[in-house]
Amino acid sequence: MNSIEDRYFDKPTGEISLLPPIELDPRKAALVIIDMQYHDAHPDHGVVAALEKLYPGSTAYYAQRLSTTVPAIQRLLDYARASSLEIIHLVVGSDYQDLRDFNRRMRAWILDLQARSGMADFYWTSSPTFRILEELTPLPHEIIFRKRSFGAFNSTNFENFLREIGVETLLITGCVTNYCIETTVRDAADRGFSVIVTDEAVAGFDQASHDATMGSFRGGFAAVVPTADQMIALLKEIKETRSLS
């Protein structure tokens, strides 16, 4: 990593990392916002509400985390829009109420959770819970990919699109840390993309699994920047440096 980037990345003392250097060029980067929809990213709806109904108190950490994650993503989104950084929204959902185009394992746990909680249609595209959170609503020109799996690469042409538009580095945000975020990050790294995750801008169901995933990322899959403000400062500094060179 060059000296500019090195000052922003989270690298705990003594932690072993096999991550190669990441040369961040904002012209070849995209802000990726994963699954910030009412069914996954709001404490009063969808999966979160169902889990809380079945296991009271189980989503308290996640709800608290979302209260800081959503504003962090908002700040990154505002900066990306102001600086013409590529923006990609990933959503998960099915046009079919019975989720027939989801894989069998994923479909089974969703339908089971719905049945046990007495709630329905978390991921159906005709359900209100499918919508992206109001404060993160995409602008008309922003790209939206709909997936039917945890990972973005496994049920869409996401990879082909990134290569067609020349994106080499993914700036990852969204939820849930050790589910859709982790799967997408690992798959991106395996496909040769550079990945940077903003810790503050991703949310997990509990601190232990979130921290473990961040450690795994730093070990060989993605650089980790602690806060949205630091990520924005990094992008600004690189932009200013390039303009002077």
How would you characterize the overall build of this protein?
The chain is globular, with a radius of gyration of 18 Å. The chain has a single domain (3-37, 68-93, 133-244), classed as Isochorismatase-like (Rossmann fold). Strand 5, helix 8 and strand 6 (223-225) form a beta-alpha-beta unit. It contains nine helices and six strands. Strands 3-2-1-4-5-6 form a six-stranded parallel beta sheet. The chain has 245 residues and is an alpha/beta fold. Helix 4 packs parallel to helix 9.
Please outline the helices and strands.
Layout: H1 3-6, E1 29-34, H2 38-41, H3 46-54, H4 60-82, E2 86-92, H5 104-117, E3 143-147, H6 158-164, E4 169-175, H7 177-190, E5 194-203, H8 207-220, E6 223-225, H9 228-244
Parallel strand pairs: 1-2, 1-4, 2-3, 4-5, 5-6
Helix pairs in contact: 3-5, 4-9, 7-8
Classify the beta-strand content into a percent band.
Answer: 15-25%
User: What string gives the helices and strands in order?
Assistant: HEHHHEHEHEHEHEH
Low-pLDDT sequence parts: none
The first-to-last residue Cα distance is 18 Å
Query: How many structural domains can be distinguished in the coordinates?
Result: 1
Please name the CATH topology.
Answer: Rossmann fold
Report on the biggest sheet.
6 strands, parallel
Number of strands: 6
- What is the CATH C-level name? Alpha Beta
CATH architecture: 3-Layer(aba) Sandwich
Helix percent band: 40-55%
**Coarse morphology:** globular
Question: What is the SS-derived class?
Answer: alpha/beta
The whole-angstrom Rg is: 18 Å
- Strand order of the biggest β-sheet: 3-2-1-4-5-6
CATH superfamily: Isochorismatase-like
Number of helices: 9
